[in-house]
Automatic annotation (TrEMBL):
It comes from the Bacteria. Belongs to the ThiI family. The lineage of its organism: Bacteria, Bacillati, Bacillota, Bacilli, Bacillales. PROSITE patterns: THUMP (PS51165). It comes from Metabacillus fastidiosus. Keywords: ATP-binding, Cytoplasm, Nucleotide-binding, RNA-binding, Thiamine biosynthesis, Transferase, tRNA-binding. This is Probable tRNA sulfurtransferase. Catalyzes the ATP-dependent transfer of a sulfur to tRNA to produce 4-thiouridine in position 8 of tRNAs, which functions as a near-UV photosensor. Also catalyzes the transfer of sulfur to the sulfur carrier protein ThiS, forming ThiS-thiocarboxylate. This is a step in the synthesis of thiazole, in the thiamine biosynthesis pathway. The sulfur is donated as persulfide by IscS.
């Protein structure tokens, strides 16, 4: 069957009151971005739907690309006809004829956005259902549990007939909730934190701390590869790579060993905050999960977080490691994260870091060093690259 439209349902956006127009506009832009390779598509936005006119393009590729777009609750292949009973009957029959198998059951579910339409939903269900039964063989009606649910959406300007729904990614359109900077290590957790933040409509840029020669080019490549996996959800992502060797060496030389981890995290957060301000982002994101390691106790968070009043989002804070790993596998980052290349933190990890560091103590240790100048130099020498989306096929259905 030739479907001529894709009908997209928004889900959570519909409830966003006055911001709705902004949200829908952002979703339309995000959809257009993932479909740039498909020429001739036309977009039409109504109060609670977005329609893509396919103009003869095949729907299969387009449907695949829509699956990871946040802000879509569900979408359906659709056939458009005039809002006229005879035309609806014909189009419904055409839609179902090419779809059903022997002994399938079906149901017609009409929805009238146009309340002035002369027939009510029951009458329309009956008229269309009867027309289908008369003109097909081996089909039965089952209003409770049908194999085919033929949906007829009657609007003033047109009627859309759909019979096959895809589940969307849910969440909010990326960019609709502002922008934040993700501190991305090469580990399992931070890419998952990035994915979950994107899902809530926040655009992200990455910040990675890199300590050559202690960490290799391959460790850097790992971070770029992780970023590439996340571009499936947002098109492209900027990565800021911060040279961190000098600061780490200074910490090792000047701060007592059991406080070096706390101090390292504080410097990371300070630098990230400067880059955040330059990039006009509103928050920082980390992959921390409560109690996972020494630097992720509440006491550590108090001592680390003290360097900034910028909101630090920690989407994984209450999650178990196994839950995090499961998402990492589904979004395709896990196999990259477990590559055996070193991260700057693992190399400098002290034998027994303080699990309950005192804020006064770490501040005092740091007061003997002029870190500000080193932070400025690190920001100045930061390298920025843009990673663009790559076509890939994740198991999106099982994810959402
Ligand atoms: N080299 C780095 N560059 C950027 N951010 C980092 C780096 N190392 C750690 N972080 C940030 O600090 C968080 C905590 O790091 P840590 O190594 O303690 O924990 P983790 O649970 O192993 O996290 P991950 O799996 O993301 O590495 C990370 O999730 C990440 O947000």
């Amino acid at each position: 069957m030739i479907f001529d439209h894709i009908l997209i349902r928004f889900g959570e956006i519909s409830t966003k009151g006055r911001n709705r127009i902004k949200f829908v506009e952002q979703l339309r832009r995000n959809i257009q971005n993932v479909l740039t390779d498909h020429e001739g598509l036309k977009y039409e936005v109504t109060r609670d739907r977005l329609y893509i006119h396919l103009n003869g393009q095949k729907h299969e590729d387009i449907a695949e690309k829509l699956k990871p777009v946040f802000g879509i609750q569900s979408f359906s292949l659709a056939l458009k006809c005039e809002s006229d009973v005879e035309q609806m009957k014909q189009a419904s029959l055409e839609a179902i004829r090419n779809l059903y198998k022997k002994n399938d059951s079906f149901k017609v579910s009409t929805r009238r956005a146009d309340k002035q339409f002369p027939l009510d939903t029951n009458e329309l269900n009956y008229e269309i259902g009867r027309h289908i039964l008369i003109n097909t063989e081996d089909l039965t009606v089952d209003v409770h549990n049908p194999v085919i649910n033929l949906r007829v959406e009657v609007r003033k300007e047109a009627t859309y007939i759909t019979c096959f729904d895809y589940k969307g990614a849910g969440g909010l359109p990326v960019g609709a909730s502002g922008k934040a900077m993700l501190l991305l290590s090469g580990g399992i957790d931070s890419p998952v934190a990035g994915f979950l933040t994107l899902k809530r409509g926040v655009a992200i840029e990455m910040i990675h701390f890199f300590s050559p020669p202690y960490t290799s080019e391959r460790a850097k490549q790992k971070v770029l590869d992780l970023t590439k996996e996340l571009t499936a959800y947002c098109g492209e992502i900027k990565v800021h790579i911060v040279p961190f060797t000098a600061i780490q060496e200074k910490i090792r030389a000047q701060v007592p060993e059991n406080y070096s981890m706390t101090s390292t995290r504080r410097m990371m957060l300070k630098i990230a905050d400067v880059i955040r301000e330059k990039q006009k982002a509103l928050a920082l994101i980390t992959g921390e999960s409560l109690g996972q390691v020494a630097s992720q106790t509440l006491e550590s968070m108090v001592a680390i977080n003290d360097v900034t009043s910028t909101p630090v989002l920690r989407p994984l804070i209450t999650m178990d490691k196994l839950e995090i790993i499961k998402i990492a596998e589904q979004i395709g980052t896990h196999s990259i994260s477990i590559r055996p290349y070193e991260d700057c933190c693992t190399i400098f990890t002290p034998a027994s870091p303080k699990t309950k560091p005192k804020l006064e103590k770490v501040s005092r240790f740091e007061s003997f060093v002029d870190f500000d100048e080193m932070i400025e130099a690190a920001v100045e020498n930061t390298e920025t690259v843009i990673i663009k989306m790559e076509e890939k096929s994740n198991d999106f259905e099982s994810l959402f």
